[in-house]
Amino acid sequence: xxxxxxxxxxxxxxxxxxxxxxxxxxxxxxxxxxxxxxxxxxxxxxxxxxxxxxxxxxxxxxxxxxxxxxxxxxxxxxxxxxxxxxxxxxxxxxxxxxxxxxxxxxxxxxxxxxxxxxxxxxxxxxxxxxxxxxxxxxxxxxxxxxxxxxxxxxxxxxxxxxxxxxxxxxxxxxxxxxxxxxxxxxxxxxxxxxxxxxxxxxxxxxxxxxxxxxxxxxxxxxxxxxxxxxxxxxxxxxxxxxxxxxxxxxxxxxxxxxxxxxxxxxxxxxxxxxxxxxxxxxxxxxxxxxxxxxxxxxxxxxxxxxxxxxxxxxxxxxxxxxxxxxxxxxx
Length: 331
What we know:
Helices cover 77% and strands 1% of the residues. With 331 residues, it is mainly alpha-helical. A hairpin with a 2-residue loop joins strand 1 and strand 2 (39-40).
C-alpha cells in the first residue's frame, strides 16, 4: 500500500512546492516596489479579490486589519486583499494537503488517520493565526521606530522653519534628509506633505494621528494643528514637545529598567542557589566522606562487625532468661 501511494504523494508534494514558490515570487515582486502605471501589483493578480473573499470577515475586523496594515507601512489600496488572499491560499493549500494525506493512508484498522486530522487542525489554526501575529509584530515595531525618531525629526523641522521654510516645505526637506536613518518617519513625513497639498495641514496631521494611533502622536497633531490655526510659532511648539517626548521616553526607559531588575531577581536567584549550596554544603559533605572512609577501615568505629555486635547484644538477653520455678518437695 505504501508503494501505491508513494508516487501520487510525491507528485502532489512537488506540485505544492512549485505553487508555493510561485506565490512567493509574486509576493516578492509586490514587496519589491515594482509598479505598473504608478500602482503596485496585487499579490495574486486578477484572482486577488476572489481569493481574499474565500473566508467571510466582518466589517469591524476589516477596519482593525486596515489600521494594523497602515501602522505596518502597507499603504497600497489592495493591501487588505493581499493579506486575506495570502492567508486563505496558505490555509486552503494546507487543508488540501491534509485531506490528500488522510485519504492516502486511510486504514479502518489503524488510528493513523485520526492522528493526521488532529495534527492538520492544530497546524491549520497556526497557519490561520500566524499572518495576524506577524502583522501585529511588524506594526508595533514600526510604530516604536517612529516614536523613537520623532524627537529628532521635530528638531530638524524646527531648524528648517527657523531658517525660513514653511511647514510644508520643512516636511519635504526633513523627509529627504532622514530617509537613510529613519525610513519609516521619512515615509510618514512625505505622506503628511502630500495630504497637506490635497487638503490642509490640520487634516494631514489628523490623518497622521489616525494612522499611528498613539498618545504621543495624537498630542503632537493636536498641538501643531492648534499652532497653525492660531498663527503662533509652530517651530517653538514642536521644539518644546520634542523635549517633552525625550523626557517621557527617558522616564519610560527607566521604568522598564526597574521592572526588568525585579523580573531578573527570580532567574538570578535560581542561578545563584546551586553555587551557594555547593559552597556551603560542599566542605561538610567532603568531611563526612573522609570520616566514613577513615572509620570504615580496620580498627575504626564503623568497622565493627554488625552480626557479631548483634549476637553479643542478644546473648546476654538469652542468658538472663528466667528459669522455670522448681517445685517444692512434698511434706
